[in-house]
Amino acid sequence: MTDLAHIRNFSIVAHIDHGKSTLADRLIQSTGTVADRDMQAQILDTMDIEKERGITIKANSVRIEYKADDGQDYVLNLIDTPGHVDFAYEVSRSMRAVEGSLLVVDSTQGVEAQTLANVYQAIDADHEIVPVLNKIDLPASEPERVCEQIEDVIGIDASDAIEVSAKTGLGIPDVLEAIVTRLPAPKGDPDAPLKAMLVDSWYDAYLGVVVLVRVIDGFLKKGDRIRMMATKAVYGVDRVGVFRPQMEDIARLGPGEMGFLTASIKQVRDTSVGDTITHEKRGATQALPGFAPSQPVVFCGLFPVDNAEFEDLREAIAKLSLNDASFSTEMETSAALGFGFRCGFLGLLHLEVIRDRLEREYDIELITTAPSVIYHIHMRDGEVRELHNPADMPDLTHVDHIEEPRIKATILVPDEYLGDVLKLCQDRRGIQIDLTYAGTRAMVVYDLPLNEVVFDFYDRLKSVTKGYASFDYQMSGYREDRLVKMQILVNEEPVDALSTMVHADRAETRGRAMVEKLKELIPQHMFKIPIQAAIGGRIIAREPLSALRKDVTAKCYGGDMTRKRKLLDKQKAGKKKMRQFGKVDIPQQAFISALKMDG
Predict the structure, then answer these.
(1) Environment class of residue 570 by beta-carbon count within 10 Å: exposed (0-12), middle (13-18) or buried (19+)?
(2) Is the pLDDT confidence value at 310 over 50?
(3) Is pLDDT above 60 for 575?
(4) φ and ψ at 421, to 5 degrees?
(5) Do 356 and 318 share a structural domain?
(6) What angle do CA 249, 254, 258 make, to 5 degrees?
(7) Quick one: DSSP state of residue 170?
(8) Is there a contact between 453 and 407 (Cβ–Cβ < 8 Å)?
(9) Domain span at 456
């Protein structure tokens, strides 16, 4: 067992692309945790989708052994966290399992919105924070300016910030020494009953459920009978081990240590994230505080293309929600799409990642309905309903008013793009709260409606600022507004998946943009298809999609016009009949593309 004074548990936090995963790579490589021949870039990003997109989605942990300058051997447990706002819940959970954080700031870009959001989570978790300035080898690097910014904007002392280049390995020994000397050792009582925090869990086809734990008090070893305090489930431990980054079995885990256990757990619902694990006999009586549940902000329906795959989808969603506690689901049915699930996400990137993972890891083809947020419908009889899906909108004669969720958005942007950002926020019905300066960069705080932000606000923000703006938000409550449900009709049939809630003043422009886009996205059929946008019974926009035509008069050489007329009339009657019974195929891509406005 490692002495508590020689253990350090820490996470790496930063804005997207400031070099968290690369720094983790260098720490792993410089301590010889992974042999050089096995080393690869972003070694802790294990999912294909993480490698393809170049982002971290899951927080991953690794145990590193390090011999310090004072000759002592230390055990370092590192958690590499995501940077994107949609995975903030992963970050907050990881923070609860460790005592300190390395705050990585890009020395060419400075403090960004997500740097702020993540460092505040570390401060909330009562962490000791060590600032690290990365990318010091680049010509555009300005360490003095960035140190000032860290002190002005975040308010933490950056006088002894460590300057590193995670790419070249410059300054990595200083980081390791700082972890050992400046971060606190964990606390724990080896003689107390076992208390271990369930930090994360995922499903493995061979081992069942694998559980990532942080031991607070007592010991955990192979053969122990353990109890999950929230779900009351009891299991016998099969394996106890640590990640280096591969799984490696060890004899036991003691106070302050992080590792994994497997116990032939078949029931996915028995392991809830934030639960406390203790021994079945002489266990702890008081559970650990756990994690606050995440609040999903975007909802959409997921339906299998083939209805026969519904059971497979149910099983896949159960396994995936075990691995991602911020993803919530409930069953729903749709007239057009059959059985499926209404799922809640923390943002649109989160939605795309979950959809991609379901399609890749479980090989299920999906239809995704229009993402929407939760509205509060105030009925005339005083009842308040939550509306997750615009298709379930009650009859307007019974509705008194509708409230929509609002967010407080913080945007950091270089001065020259400020005008474009203010215009974008005004266009999205935003209300300016604050505007301050940190050096040459403006920090704008806006009150915005969430449904205007959810689709493509982030993409638009990046394009009007050439990628220099950064954006972070938190929920701020509900407010009444003039909202209406807009339906899309294709061949006079309403398409459930494309129903959206829009502001009454914008309905017409939004409807016109949507039908024009669908006209490009839906392939031509053998008959003419009208595409319409409607509010209630009123059509507000219409675009006809012309039919594919076969030249039926090609075989008529010369002769009387009546011969041609007869063939054309026959074709016309056939197309009319086809239009009555014809089924319009809307490609999957059209659903998401049609919703991205201002393209």
Answers:
(1) exposed
(2) yes
(3) yes
(4) -70, -40
(5) yes
(6) 65
(7) B
(8) yes
(9) 376-481
Whether the Cβ atoms of residue 462 and residue 398 lie closer than 8 Å to each other: no
Would you mind telling me the total number of residues written for the chain in this entry?
Answer: 599
- Give the integer Cα–Cα distance in Å for 200 and 274: 8
Indicate whether 88 belongs to any domain. yes
How many domains are contained in the chain?
A: 5
| pTM to 2 decimal places | 0.67
Q: Which two tokens stand for residue 576?
A: 């009319």
Mean pLDDT value across the chain: 80
- Cα–Cα distance measured from residue 213 to residue 208, given in angstroms and rounded to the nearest whole number: 16
407 and 519, same domain (yes or no): no
Compute the average pLDDT of residues 64-88: 76
Give, to the nearest 10 degrees, the angle between helix 113-124 and helix 88-96. 30
CA distance 318 to 403: 32
* CATH, residue 477: 3.30.70.240
Position with higher pLDDT, 34 vs 471? 471
Give a yes or no: residue 534 inside a domain.
yes
| pLDDT confidence of residue 598 | 45
> What pLDDT does 135 receive?
86
Would you say 452 and 596 are in contact if contact means Cβ atoms under 8 Å apart?
A: no
- If one compares 205 and 304, the residue with the highest pLDDT of the two is 304
From the list 292, 466, 273, 478, the residue with the least C-alpha distance to 373 is 478
Q: Is 29 left (phi over 0), alpha (psi -120 to 50) or beta?
A: alpha
End of a domain among 133, 159, 182? 182
- The answer to whether residues 202 and 88 belong to one domain is no
pLDDT in tens, 341-391: 888 887 777 788 888 888 888 888 888 877 778 889 999 988 998 887 787
The residue from 481, 502, 537 where one domain ends is 481
Report residue 151 as tokens: 């002190």
